[in-house]
């Protein structure tokens, strides 16, 4: 079985997540997974429901909200459930799980998924049962993902047709959706947005841009600092390999770093190609092919998806480090040999890896819709966000200088004829403000310190209206997953802070409830968790 080099591009081109820290040496179970899909969650604390109580609906949206002369529309998908709706409530609230990049939603998004279960659905249940609040819950799919693609005479992901895909259009979609539901319900209701990763960015921006419509937002693992070149992603991965709380150690880091240093000297050798199951060893004579193989890691290091409770081999940092350290100390294997052993365990035995930069560019240029929506997100990185995870200096645990930003800029040029990436990202910074969120209110920012995306998150806040929490030992919005018996104390406390903060904003109990939870947060680093007013 041949695996093409297009998979090598996933770590750079596709965020947050787009589909997790995924690359060519990872098994097919890891590929194209959104953020923490590795965690096989099941519903155990949110009351179990089947999909019959979740309704799938389509809403007619303007294709271009900023051109009133363009009357074209498309059908945007959303999901809803009234399982937390009460007949005689103390008040009514609407919760919205904001969609983003990656595979489209299905009905499980309002039952049990990685998106909004541990925060939004749990809180809806609490507010309904304990506070007598009627909560209507929704999930809105992002345009150009899932089943929310506009229809054209040709593919929706041609360069010409992708011009209608942007976060600004998506926010207008969200505003129109809220207006539509308010009209349908016949009342103005307080809305709270929830989202993790890029949807977390949108959840915050929706509150900032439409404060008259969105009452509050919960923004999890959101990269609100917009950058083209993002070397800090791999800097955090390197830190995680040394982070004892999640099983890292200096020796684990050294194996990875030294192994990649050895790889730079041997990458064009036949034995290297054999050890790492490269289909055509001759391709590794070319520098660009060496770069796309070594610049993002020869093995999968699950920093972004780290789950301390997983049980599969090499499924988290602790299990990966323990395995590498054990075989390194017990054998005469070099560090590179250890990486080859790991790579073989993370991949199927019957597949080889096709490393061909030119062929990859051809594949990326095809206007093909995929279930993962990778071309849509790639477009957004070139035109709005960047977020290119580069390996340029010695802080990168992989092959330093083997992934420079020129690789990503070349993709934008070839795939979309976009040559003004820096100007595009500067425009986004000017429009959204990046980490400068002065003047905003009632948005809670949460980040995990194991998550490489936390380097772009709002980690500290002196504004009591914009509380910020950092969760030690936590990966990419791990608290939005359904509750598990293996959840760390810090994850449990993070959820408690979300519940207390949002409940405080929505009810008159914020002062006492906030103080009660603040007293139990342990090692959470937080700032002004409960707002007044």
TrEMBL record:
Record flagged with keyword ATP-binding = no
GO molecular function term, any single one? serine-type exopeptidase activity
Residues folding into a coiled coil are none
| UniProt keyword annotations, A-Z | Glycoprotein, Hydrolase, Protease, Signal
Any single biological process term in GO: proteolysis
For this protein, the record's Pfam families field holds: Peptidase_S28
Stated family: Belongs to the peptidase S28 family.
What protein does this entry describe?
Answer: Thymus-specific serine protease
């Amino acid at each position: 079985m041949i695996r093409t080099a297009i998979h090598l591009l996933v770590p750079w081109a596709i965020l947050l997540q787009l589909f997790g820290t995924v690359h060519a040496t990872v098994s097919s179970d890891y590929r194209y997974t959104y953020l923490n899909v590795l965690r096989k969650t099941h519903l155990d604390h949110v009351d179990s429901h089947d999909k019959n109580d979740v309704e799938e609906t389509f809403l007619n949206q303007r294709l271009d909200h900023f051109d009133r002369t363009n009357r074209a529309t498309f059908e945007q998908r959303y999901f809803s459930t009234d399982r937390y709706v009460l007949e005689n409530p103390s008040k009514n609230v609407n919760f919205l799980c904001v969609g983003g990049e990656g595979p489209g939603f299905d009905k499980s998004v309002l039952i049990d998924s990685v998106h909004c279960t541990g925060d939004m659905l749990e809180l809806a249940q609490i507010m309904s049962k304990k506070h007598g609040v009627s909560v209507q819950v929704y999930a809105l799919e992002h345009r150009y993902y899932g089943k929310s693609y506009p229809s054209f005479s040709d593919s929706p992901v041609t360069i010409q047709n992708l011009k209608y895909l942007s976060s600004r259009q998506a926010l207008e979609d969200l505003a129109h959706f809220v207006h539509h539901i308010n009209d349908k319900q016949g009342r103005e209701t307080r809305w709270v947005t929830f989202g993790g990763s890029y949807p977390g960015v949108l959840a915050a921006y929706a509150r900032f841009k439409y404060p008259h419509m969105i009452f509050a937002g919960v923004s999890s693992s959101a990269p609100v600092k917009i950058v083209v070149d993002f070397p800090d992603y791999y800097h955090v991965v390197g830190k995680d390999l040394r982070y004892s709380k999640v099983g890292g150690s200096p020796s684990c880091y050294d194996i990875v770093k030294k192994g990649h240093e050895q790889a730079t000297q041997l990458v064009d050798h036949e034995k290297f190609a054999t050890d790492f199951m490269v289909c055509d060893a001759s391709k590794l004579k070319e520098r660009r092919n060496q770069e796309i193989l070594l610049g993002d890691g020869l093995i999968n290091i699950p920093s972004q998806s780290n789950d301390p409770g997983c049980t599969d081999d090499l499924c988290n940092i602790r299990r990966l480090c323990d395995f590498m350290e054990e075989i390194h100390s017990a054998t005469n294997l070099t560090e590179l040999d250890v990486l080859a052993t790991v790579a073989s365990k993370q991949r199927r035995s019957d597949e080889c890896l096709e490393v061909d930069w030119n062929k990859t560019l051809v594949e990326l240029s095809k206007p093909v819709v995929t279930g993962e929506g990778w071309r849509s997100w790639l477009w957004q990185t070139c035109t709005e966000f960047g977020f290119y995870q580069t390996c340029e200096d010695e802080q990168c645990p992989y092959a330093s200088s083997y992934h420079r930003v020129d690789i990503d800029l070349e993709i934008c040029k070839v795939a979309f004829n976009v040559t003004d990436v820096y100007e595009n990202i500067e425009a986004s910074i000017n429009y959204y403000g990046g980490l400068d969120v002065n003047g905003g209110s009632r948005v809670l920012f949460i980040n995990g310190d194991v998550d490489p995306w936390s380097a772009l998150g709002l980690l500290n806040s002196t504004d009591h209206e914009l509380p910020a929490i950092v969760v030690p030992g936590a990966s990419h919005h791990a608290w939005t997953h359904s509750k598990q018996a293996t959840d760390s104390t810090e994850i449990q406390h993070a959820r408690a802070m979300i519940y207390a903060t949002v409940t405080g904003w929505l009810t008159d109990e914020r002062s006492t409830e906030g103080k009660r939870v603040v007293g139990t947060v342990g090692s959470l680093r937080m700032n002004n968790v409960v707002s007044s007013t």
